[in-house]
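Subject: Sanity check before I submit

Could someone independently write out the structure tokens for this chain? I want to compare against mine line by line before I put it in a report. The sequence has 140 residues.
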Amino acid sequence: MTVTIYHNPSCGTSRNALALIRNAGIEPTVIEYLKTPPSRDDLKRMIERAGLTVREAIREKGTPYAELGLDNLSLTDEQLLDAMEAHPILINRPFVISELGVRLARPSELVLDILPKPQKGPFSKEDGEVVIDAEGNRIV
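---
Independent answer below. Compare away.
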């Protein structure tokens, strides 16, 4: 049972997703994607397996998105991937991969859909929002 997270330790959503994985008793492979970006092929595969478009996988906030003109809807997926490859900060996060699928865990609790083990106890996000109750059940 392997789980991999493309993680940014500066991102609260990414930290929450990682904590939810660990709350299931899983120690994932953690890839700090700003230091070790996925290959172009791996990125394309993750986006596709997550059921997203390339545009949906781009991060706008806190990135050179606007400066690079990436809001231009005539840009192709290949052009967007070029930008993501050149500026990994444009890759939205966290992407999580397990045997059960791939998710862009935004919000972080989307990771629960692909974890191969249940939660072991209560969990609250960093902002205090309760996501998992005392019995390990997801709060809807």
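---
OP: Matches mine. For the report I'm noting this point. The mean pLDDT is 96.
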